[in-house]
């Protein structure tokens, strides 16, 4: 008994505890790095359908995946967007005009995708199309203002997903939804943040349902990025219109200096990243890695500010947001 005890003690002295701890942590990170860096074979056989390719993340992702040899099916809202994208990409990339709020258009697009992919199925769906305006304090807005955004960002996304699910199941493919840090904390009124909360809920339930079919669902949560969605002209041009239709009593209660309600947005705008590839690289990983993540947060503000904030007690977050 006594000897055994002493022997174990000696062993500990020779190779200290902290060594094992560091070795374990090191091994964990090495394994993690290896696990997530494995890329799929035969990318050139895979079809990916992306909505909202006219500009911003969708446009960049379409060009990025095309460059890697995937077969990109790019949906644009406008003909101009379609033509510009075609000029910048290879012959492999196919485009279509799609308004995600129009059910007939969505059905037609799904049929078109089916013709393209044939019996291979659809490897990837990237729900990227989205709008952010109008936003303002909630009381200033109407049901129509909310509907406009929810129709594109939430219902449009749901309909596109539902109509393509059979093709995605067939390929045991991937669904990538673009949410936002706004899907975790809401600063300001309007349908945008609501739509992003909805996307998170939809994606979560979908991921759990489709797991048994071999379909993987990832959510990308970018911080604030300089895309068309964050248009600096907004506060100067659209907000005054919203303000002018308000009843006198509301105007009086909120006060003439309405710019203070948009201060947070201006701060967000100043902090916003201009490196859009931070986000499209996450999307690319979700589509091309053997083991994609469930959630990606892109941008230092998402990682360092919004995510930690979303885990703090509500009262504390309310206090911090009121400070800005
Ligand atoms: C890649 O394609 C080749 C030939 O088309 C096929 O034999 C192989 O199984 C494919 N690999 C994977 C991982 O799908
Ligand atoms: C969607 O509607 C637009 C405009 O009406 C049309 O140009 C486009 O071809 C339609 N898309 C599909 C897939 O039918
Ligand atoms: C997110 O993904 C799910 C499944 O991948 C899809 O059904 C849904 O429409 C997407 N969008 C939102 C807003 O959840
Ligand atoms: C936290 C956050 O991102 N909030 C967003 C809420 O929605 C507005 C637009 O409607 C965004 O500008 C905010 O960034």
TrEMBL record:
<keyword id="KW-1133">Transmembrane helix</keyword>
<comment type="similarity">
    <text>Belongs to the short-chain dehydrogenases/reductases (SDR) family.</text>
</comment>
<dbReference type="GO" id="GO:0016491">
    <property type="term" value="F:oxidoreductase activity"/>
</dbReference>
<feature type="transmembrane region" description="Helical">
    <location>
        <begin position="149"/>
        <end position="168"/>
    </location>
</feature>
<keyword id="KW-0812">Transmembrane</keyword>
<dbReference type="InterPro" id="IPR002347">
    <property type="entry name" value="SDR_fam"/>
</dbReference>
<keyword id="KW-0560">Oxidoreductase</keyword>
<dbReference type="InterPro" id="IPR036291">
    <property type="entry name" value="NAD(P)-bd_dom_sf"/>
</dbReference>
<protein>
    <submittedName>
        <fullName>Retinol dehydrogenase 16-like isoform X1</fullName>
    </submittedName>
</protein>
<feature type="transmembrane region" description="Helical">
    <location>
        <begin position="17"/>
        <end position="36"/>
    </location>
</feature>
<keyword id="KW-0472">Membrane</keyword>
<dbReference type="Pfam" id="PF00106">
    <property type="entry name" value="adh_short"/>
</dbReference>
<dbReference type="GO" id="GO:0008202">
    <property type="term" value="P:steroid metabolic process"/>
</dbReference>
<dbReference type="InterPro" id="IPR020904">
    <property type="entry name" value="Sc_DH/Rdtase_CS"/>
</dbReference>
């Amino acid at each position: 008994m006594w000897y055994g005890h002493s022997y174990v003690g000696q062993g500990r002295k020779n190779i200290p505890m902290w060594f094992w701890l560091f070795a374990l942590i090191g091994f964990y990170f090495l394994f993690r790095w290896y696990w997530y860096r494995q890329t799929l074979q035969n990318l050139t056989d895979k079809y990916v359908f992306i909505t909202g390719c006219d500009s911003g993340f969708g446009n960049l992702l379409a060009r990025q995946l095309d460059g890697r040899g995937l077969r990109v099916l790019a949906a644009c809202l406008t003909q101009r967007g379609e033509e510009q994208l075609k000029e910048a990409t290879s012959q492999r990339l196919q485009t279509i005009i799609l308004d995600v709020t129009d059910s007939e258009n969505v059905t037609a697009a799904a049929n078109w995708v089916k013709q393209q992919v044939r019996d291979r199925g659809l490897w990837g769906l990237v729900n990227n199309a989205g709008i952010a305006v109008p936003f303002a304090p909630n009381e200033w807005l109407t049901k129509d203002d909310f509907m406009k955004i929810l129709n594109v960002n939430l219902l449009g996304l749901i309909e596109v997903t539902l109509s393509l699910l059979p093709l995605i199941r067939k390929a045991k493919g991937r669904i990538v939804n673009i949410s936002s840090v706004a899907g975790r904390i809401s600063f300001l009124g309007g349908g945008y943040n609501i739509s992003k909360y909805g996307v998170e809920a939809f994606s979560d339930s979908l991921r759990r349902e489709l797991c048994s079919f071999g379909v993987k669902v990832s959510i990308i949560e970018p911080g604030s990025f300089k895309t068309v969605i964050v248009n600096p002209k907004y506060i100067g041009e659209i907000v005054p219109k919203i303000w002018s239709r308000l009843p006198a009593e509301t105007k009086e209660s909120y006060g003439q200096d309405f710019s203070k309600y948009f201060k947070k947005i201006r701060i967000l705008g100043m902090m916003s990243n201009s490196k859009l590839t931070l986000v499209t690289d996450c999307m690319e990983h979700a589509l091309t890695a053997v083991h994609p993540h469930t959630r990606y947060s892109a941008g230092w503000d998402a990682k360092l500010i919004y995510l930690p904030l979303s885990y703090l007690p509500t009262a504390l977050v309310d206090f911090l947001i009121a400070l800005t």
